């Protein structure tokens, strides 16, 4: 490329000789030639260094020194050499860049020369044109001078032409000034190129100094490497000689040791034969060991399996005895409860529902005992609290299983006993579901009446029964009739005027039911009128205490024995915290009345448990209406409903503690409501009209449908029964 530039510059030397003399172009060419020669010399030196390096590598490959301690230093020298080569490559790249810059500057210089040439040609043409015009003007002036009569006109014409000439001259001068400015600019460009060339020369000098330094380093490394190789060669020869002499000494010692070993072998042959015999016997034992081990393991497994089977059979027998004893204990406990008149307490845990939400608050906090169905455990604030009731129903228990446990109480109503079953618990715990259920899966209320009808049909040959149903609710401490024509009418609780001490509600509607269809109609009619609202805790929250009163009147046609049993089925409204339920306005007032009545129920239970002389039954309409069931003349069962969700553990704990307090209350033995009337004749075996009449409703108080028999009638009837039994005997 430099030679090509030289040729181009020589061709244009004649055209821009004046411009080169002004701008100093010859010095730039000299510097460029010097750089090219220096670059060529550096390339030749690099090639010579590479040849020497290849020669050194070839010598090293021909005579390698594997155990040389200076091999690492040799490797370092090679790395330095490779680094020098990389730096030389970088120097070459910089020289190429400098060549490209020189070529670019030469091209720019050629363009400037062409522009200057064009400018000079234009200037020459303009000067030629102006000179021609000047000659024409002079000739015109001379011709005009020869004509004096037109002197005035000619003078004016010359002035005009002189103005034009001056204008042309000014234009030429401005053009000349423009060209001079262009020339000045080109001079400035050439000065910049000279400065760049000088910087390139400085860089080249630095690179040359570095290359000379690298060459000196390379020569010094080469000399050191030759010296080290020579020293290594001498050390190798010396090490070989020392190793040879040491090997001779060791060989002599080995021969001596070998002679001693041969002597020892001759003496060790009998011991070797003994060891061989022992080894063979051990080998046979090892070969037979797996069979012996398998036989031993087989016998051990058989013994262990036999022992495990014996333990299992013993455990099964113990578990059977334990369950039998547990059943016997429950039976004895139930009999003791019956004799003492304790309130029986059943617990039922509802399942987790979608209303409980998700996350840790909806986790199950209630667990059950696998061996005892009367115990449940509650995890409250990280501590497990255990409660023992008479029976605990898990979430998977069905309505049928729950009713099987209470049907014995229901049937005792036919025999003339008063029975009360009430559901207690926080709102949304499932009390209404347990007592009322759904149409497809009814609860205790409907199943109890169905069972009563079934028992009545079974005793129809000897007994006549009449079943009446009443339904009421306590809403905001007001007793209302759910089956009456005016449910908003407030009713009062009064004592029976017959002196029995029992309570009744004047004006409470009673319906005679004779079939399941009648039951469904009564339930549907009463359920429509009951107050339920939606709260944050329950979509269908009961806002009142609902009471279903079932009265069973029985008459034994053969003996004239009359029985009167009453079954109270109570669905209490749920206790709730106002902050959680979000009750406002009328809902808040309802919640306050509900909590007040439940608090009064707790006071009554506390008084009964501590055997106080005064029991505050009249503090609430609820406790006053349940006085017959809680005063010792009734079989009472409380169904406590609890929620297993973690967020309801505080309410669940309170409900279970209240259930334990209720369970410890003793009401005394229960009496049967039965009395003998006069011996009926064949025409008087029909049940009285009041008992079995077809009237749809009656407001008569219980126990007032018939008068109490006189003592004479009782004695005569007893005597006639004894005579009849004696005759038949």
UniProtKB/TrEMBL annotation:
UniProt topology in membrane: Peripheral membrane protein
Positions of the UniProt region annotated as Disordered: 685-729
Keywords, in A-Z order: ATP-binding, Cell junction, Coiled coil, Cytoplasm, Cytoplasmic vesicle, Cytoskeleton, Membrane, Microtubule, Motor protein, Nucleotide-binding, Phosphoprotein
Coiled-coil residues: 2-147, 190-246
Binding site for ATP: 425-432
Kinesin motor domain location: 342-665
GO biological process: microtubule-based movement
Pfam families with a match to the protein in the record: Kinesin (PF00225)
GO molecular function: ATP binding; microtubule binding; microtubule motor activity
Protein location: Cell junction, Adherens junction; Cytoplasm, Cytoskeleton, Microtubule organizing center, Centrosome; Cytoplasmic vesicle membrane
Compositionally biased residues, Basic residues: 720-729
Domain of life: Eukaryota
GO cellular component, one term: cytoplasmic vesicle membrane
Family designation: Belongs to the TRAFAC class myosin-kinesin ATPase superfamily. Kinesin family.
Function summary: Minus-end microtubule-dependent motor protein. Involved in apically targeted transport. Required for zonula adherens maintenance.
Protein name: Kinesin-like protein
The organism of origin for this protein: Origma solitaria
């Amino acid at each position: 490329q430099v030679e090509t530039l030289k040729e181009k510059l020589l061709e244009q030397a004649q055209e821009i000789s004046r411009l080169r003399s002004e701008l100093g172009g010859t010095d730039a060419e000299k510097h460029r030639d010097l750089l090219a020669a220096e670059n060529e010399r550096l390339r030749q030196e690099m090639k010579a260094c590479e040849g020497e390096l290849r020669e050194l590598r070839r010598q090293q490959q021909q005579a390698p020194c594997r155990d040389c301690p200076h091999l690492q230093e040799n490797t370092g020298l090679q790395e330095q050499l490779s680094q020098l080569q990389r730096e030389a490559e970088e120097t070459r790249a910089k020289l190429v860049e400098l060549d490209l810059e020189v070529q670019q500057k030469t091209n720019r210089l050629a363009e400037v020369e062409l522009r200057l040439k064009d400018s000079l040609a234009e200037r020459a043409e303009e000067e030629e044109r102006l000179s021609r015009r000047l000659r024409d003007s002079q000739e015109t002036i001379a011709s005009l001078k020869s004509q004096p009569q037109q002197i005035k006109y000619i003078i004016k014409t010359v002035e005009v032409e002189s103005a034009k000439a001056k204008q042309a001259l000014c234009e030429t001068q401005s053009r000349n000034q423009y060209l001079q400015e262009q020339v000045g600019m080109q001079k400035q460009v050439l000065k910049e190129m000279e400065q760049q060339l000088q910087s390139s020369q400085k860089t080249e000098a630095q690179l040359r100094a570095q290359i000379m330094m690298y060459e000196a380093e390379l020569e010094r490394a080469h000399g050191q490497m030759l010296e080290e190789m020579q020293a290594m060669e001498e050390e190798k020869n010396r090490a070989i000689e020392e190793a040879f002499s040491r090997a001779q000494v060791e060989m002599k010692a080995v021969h001596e040791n070998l002679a001693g070993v041969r002597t020892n072998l001759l003496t060790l042959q009998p011991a070797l034969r003994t060891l061989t015999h022992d080894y063979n016997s051990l080998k046979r034992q090892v070969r037979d060991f797996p069979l012996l081990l398998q036989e031993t393991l087989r016998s051990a497994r058989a013994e262990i399996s036999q022992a495990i089977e014996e333990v299992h059979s013993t455990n099964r027998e113990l578990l059977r005895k334990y369950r039998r004893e547990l059943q016997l204990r429950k039976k004895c406990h139930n009999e003791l409860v019956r004799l003492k008149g304790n309130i029986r307490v059943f617990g039922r845990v509802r399942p987790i529902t979608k209303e409980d939400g998700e996350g840790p608050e909806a986790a199950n906090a209630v667990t059950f005992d696998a061996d005892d169905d009367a115990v449940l455990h509650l995890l409250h604030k990280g501590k497990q609290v255990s409660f023992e009731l008479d029976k605990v129903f898990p979430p998977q228990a069905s309505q049928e299983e729950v009713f099987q446990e209470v049907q014995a109480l229901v049937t005792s109503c036919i025999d003339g006993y008063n029975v009360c079953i009430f559901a207690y618990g926080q709102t949304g715990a499932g009390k209404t579901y347990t007592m009322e259920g759904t149409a497809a899966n009814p609860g205790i209320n409907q199943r109890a009446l169905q069972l009563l009808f079934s028992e009545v049909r079974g005793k129809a040959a000897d007994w006549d029964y009449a079943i009446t149903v009443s339904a009421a609710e306590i809403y905001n401490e007001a007793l209302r009739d759910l089956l009456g024509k005016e449910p908003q009418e407030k009713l009062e609780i009064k004592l029976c005027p017959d002196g029995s001490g029992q309570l009744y509600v004047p004006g409470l509607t009673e319906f005679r039911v004779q079939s399941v269809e009648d039951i469904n109609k009564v339930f549907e009619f009463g359920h429509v009128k009951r107050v339920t609202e939606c709260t944050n805790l329950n979509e269908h929250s009961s806002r009142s205490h609902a009471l279903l009163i079932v009265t069973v009147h029985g008459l034994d046609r053969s003996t004239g024995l009359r029985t009167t049993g009453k079954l109270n089925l109570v669905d209490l409204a749920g206790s709730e915290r106002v902050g959680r339920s979000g009750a406002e306005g009328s809902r808040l007032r309802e919640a306050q009345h509900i909590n007040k009545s439940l608090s009064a129920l707790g006071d009554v239970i506390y008084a009964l448990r501590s055997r106080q002389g005064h029991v505050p039954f009249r503090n609430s309409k609820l406790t006053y209406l349940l006085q017959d069931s809680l005063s010792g003349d009734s079989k009472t069962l409380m169904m406590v409903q609890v929620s297993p969700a973690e967020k309801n553990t505080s309410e669940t704990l309170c409900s279970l503690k209240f259930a334990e307090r209720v369970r410890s209350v003793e009401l005394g033995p229960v009496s049967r409501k039965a009395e003998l009337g006069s011996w009926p004749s064949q025409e008087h075996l029909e049940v009285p009209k009041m008992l079995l009449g077809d009237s749809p409703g009656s407001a008569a108080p219980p126990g007032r449908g018939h008068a109490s028999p006189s003592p004479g009638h009782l004695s005569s009837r007893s005597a006639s029964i004894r005579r009849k039994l004696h005759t038949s005997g």
